[in-house]
Amino acid sequence: MPATLPPGDGPLIVLSAAATALARIVGVLIAGAGRGVIWKPAPRAAASAHLLMRALGPVSGMRLAMVQGDHATGALLAGQGGLVWLSRAPCPLVVNDPATAPLPQ
Question: Is 67:77 a contact under the CB 8 Å cutoff?
Answer without folding.
Answer: yes
